Amino acid sequence: MFVENLKETLNLGKKLSHKLNPQSIILLKGPIGAGKTSFVQGIAKGLSISEDITSPTFALSHHYNSGKIPLIHLDLYRLGNVSSAKEVFFSEEEEAIQRQAILVIEWPELIEPVIDNFWKIEISYAKDYGRNYEIRDPKNLLTFS
């Protein structure tokens, strides 16, 4: 699906939020600057989260509690090995289960093999401008085409 600008990115995230349930896991892939955090801002907007959504690259995770469903936003970009990534993921997954939260993971490549039942969103730069989104539900069906 082609997305032209930030407004459409936010709207797509908001649209996806209505399909998510507590304990949903979203793997969010894309190059630096593709709009992963902007997409999470759209999800948060759809969940009525009032806090500012920022990239958790340096903190590793941010927790948001003000919405209809809590949101945990995890970024594994800085983690260079599988064992560190798994440790952080399993800790945040446990927290998401306890709090009935949605867990969004940017840069999930190191842990994807150990996760079952997740949404997978891949963002790529379009040829001239904008972004292409490929969104697959937990049954690996292409959605939002």
Automatic annotation (TrEMBL):
Segments crossing the lipid bilayer: none
Taxon lineage: Bacteria, Bacillati, Cyanobacteriota, Cyanophyceae, Synechococcales
InterPro entries referenced in this protein's UniProt entry, alphabetically: P-loop_NTPase, T6A_TsaE
Query: From the UniProt record, which GO molecular function terms apply?
Result: ATP binding; kinase activity; metal ion binding
Report the record's Gene Ontology biological process terms.
Answer: tRNA threonylcarbamoyladenosine modification
Annotated source species = Prochlorococcus marinus (strain AS9601)
SUPFAM superfamilies reported in the protein's UniProt record: P-loop containing nucleoside triphosphate hydrolases
What highest taxon heads this organism's lineage? Bacteria
Q: Where in the cell is it found?
A: Cytoplasm
Q: Which family does it belong to?
A: Belongs to the TsaE family.
Name listed for the protein in its UniProt record: tRNA threonylcarbamoyladenosine biosynthesis protein TsaE
Q: Which Pfam families match?
A: TsaE
Instruction: State a GO cellular component annotated for this protein.
Output: cytoplasm
The answer to whether the entry has keyword Cytoplasm is yes
Keywords (A to Z) from UniProt = ATP-binding, Cytoplasm, Kinase, Magnesium, Metal-binding, Nucleotide-binding, Transferase, tRNA processing
Q: What is its main location?
A: cytoplasm
